[in-house]
């Protein structure tokens, strides 16, 4: 008997607000962005990031343009503590960037938090405690006064430590955790008490961060809470109102957008939406939403493939092919009528006119992509048909992103050939276009070693003589990629990676499929070998070989 029974749930109780103004507001200016990838995002990973991964991710966040970056929870994790020390001691934080750290409102944790930040130039100390009815009654078993007291004592402790360490430019942040499940008047009472301790001024503001720790209502209800809060909180002109939305109902971005319209100044989130449960709100989506409306998001996602590559390699989480703006299929049209409309609009589009292309909300080139059309050839050789045939006949389980690349190649061939295309032809086309790891350069002997990081030294055979390339990285693939990047003086980012064992016509062989962005262009490489590491690095070499050939051809032309 199913227990699927909606009557066990109660509706969210909205805050009573008269004359709400947020529905008439527009977002015309970027918020203060704060990344929580390295804290909230990291806490939600099956395998938390290593220090090396955090370093790489931090660099990406700085390059994208974040000025406030929550780098960890140093009192709760030695790795986070060490990472904060590395940032400070190795002077890794640009002068205009605040590093932010989270701590519970407990004296011993606050003390350890300040130890981690000793010597930092600028830092946000983010202190929180839970305020919702559910947590008060069932987790902490405290009344409202007890919960308020935890916040006030935490705030005082944060202030005392800051006064003892005047060499750092401190900013204080308080979060009434589980704000959406807290009576809004009580959240205001607690935040007012914290503000009383910190005594912010318009010149030296504090941050009050309102988390939708769990998203429990439609975004309009959240916006009502935010407008009500902004109207009633103490010293509004001395407080930065920050939002931290999660995506439990799938509306994390919408809630943050409506919350900004309701008066918030600052938005916390993660790149591509990693985070607890269904994730934090996705900063890429929200920033690109602004961008598509002609508003400068003050974050630069012009190299989206690098963002994807770093996020995927640090979180071990895939990016959905239909993820807003970033997914591999979002600028691809499958339907004939869409393709036709896009082609006509693109033909009309000129540099001096605002973007106006059917089905494409932004110009894919702005984020390093191009528009792709996928044509269904016929029942035999359509994308699904090609993939099916290659899998059945040869055991090649092509990832979707490679199916999308192969489909138009097969389509062209079938148009020229005029007949039904055979599986052997599909395989030949597949090999010609993607299995290009033997020319102009072929992998010879290589050596991998591991000290602080992985290093590779590899011989590459070429008609004009052999060369040796060297590289370092976080893993064999990344070391080899950086060896090729350096030798050929190109930027290679791995965007997609997939591998599997071959079961048809082979004896324990593995196949690796790679999509790389090389100097802004996408290349796909595939290689088969007895060893998966060799297959992977040959697949990267296949992409670089294609780039080398393309550059030679461009030079000749
Ligand atoms: O989701 C949440 O409430 C948090 C807080 C610690 C801000 O991550
Ligand atoms: Zn959170």
Automatic annotation (TrEMBL):
Q: Which cofactor does it need?
A: Mg(2+)
EC annotation from Swiss-Prot or TrEMBL: 2.3.3.13
Q: Which InterPro entries match?
A: 2-isopropylmalate_synth_dimer (IPR013709), AIPM/Hcit_synth_CS (IPR002034), Aldolase_TIM (IPR013785), IPM_Synthase (IPR005668), LeuA-like_post-cat (IPR054692), LeuA_allosteric_dom_sf (IPR036230), LeuA_N_DRE-TIM (IPR039371), PYR_CT (IPR000891)
Superkingdom to which the source organism belongs: Bacteria
Chief place where the protein resides:
cytoplasm
Q: Which ranges carry the Pyruvate carboxyltransferase domain?
A: 31-305
- Ranges in a coiled coil: none
One GO biological process this protein is involved in is: L-leucine biosynthetic process
Ligand binding (Mg(2+)): 40, 244, 246, 280
Pathway it acts in? Amino-acid biosynthesis; L-leucine biosynthesis; L-leucine from 3-methyl-2-oxobutanoate: step 1/4
One GO cellular component term noted in the UniProt record for this chain: cytoplasm
Subunit and interaction comment: Homodimer.
Protein known as: 2-isopropylmalate synthase
Q: Which organism is it from?
A: Marinomonas aquimarina
Source organism lineage?
Answer: Bacteria, Pseudomonadati, Pseudomonadota, Gammaproteobacteria, Oceanospirillales
Underlying gene: leuA
